[in-house]
Amino acid sequence: MSTLNSSVDRDRPSTWRPYTDGACNTCVASCCMLPVEVKASDLIRLNLTTADEIENSIKKTAKRLKKEGVISSYREGSEFFMLTQKSNNDCYFLDSKTRRCTVYENRPDTCRGFPMKLGPRISFCPVVKN
Ligand code: SF4
């Protein structure tokens, strides 16, 4: 393990590294092992629900998605859904072998904005090289 890898702790943003162009090409998709909260609009874009279903009952939609294993929780106040993480912390949509997002074209806004617009430490990421 390189010095870079051993000093980055995903759970401690103070240890993260400045994001650089191309860093993702050789990373293990470390950011896809962080908790990801998404909005109903993201779930609609992912074809996991419809605007009608959300309008009918966002709570029932959350209950169904939780039962199906897509989300782990739903926060009523903020209307944020937490995507399920696998036992190794991988995102529900991360291909464990290729380390690539399986829904990249339709990925949630949270993922699109990370780390330059969103995240606990803007412009820093928990890069861990392959
Ligand atoms: S949806 Fe895709 S980009 Fe977003 S955390 Fe999951 S695997 Fe990564």
Helix content: 10-25%
Give the tally of β-strands: 5
User: Quaternary status of these chains?
Assistant: single chain
Determine the strand fraction and express it as a percent band: 5-15%
Largest sheet: 3 strands, antiparallel
Structural class: alpha+beta
Radius of gyration: 16 Å
Q: How many separate helices?
A: 5
Number of domains: 1
Stretches with pLDDT under 50, minimum 5 residues: none
User: How do the strands line up in the largest sheet?
Assistant: 2-4-3
Average pLDDT works out at: 94
Report on the structure:
The chain is α+β, with helices and mostly antiparallel strands and 130 residues long. It has one domain (3-125). It has five helices and five strands; from the N terminus they run H-E-E-H-H-H-E-E-H-E. The protein has a three-stranded antiparallel sheet. The protein has a two-stranded antiparallel sheet with strand order 1-5. The longest helix has 10 residues, at 58-67. The termini are close together. The mean pLDDT is 94. The structure holds iron/sulfur cluster. Iron/sulfur cluster is lined by residues 32, 36, 91, 93-94, 101, 103, 107-108, 111.
SSE inventory with pairings:
Layout: H1 3-7, E1 17-18, E2 37-38, H2 40-45, H3 51-56, H4 58-67, E3 71-75, E4 80-83, H5 109-113, E5 124-125
Antiparallel strand pairs: 1-5, 2-4, 3-4
The chain binds iron/sulfur cluster.
The site of iron/sulfur cluster has 10 residues, from loops.
For this entry, give a set of tags.
binds iron/sulfur cluster; alpha+beta; 5 strands; two-stranded antiparallel ribbon
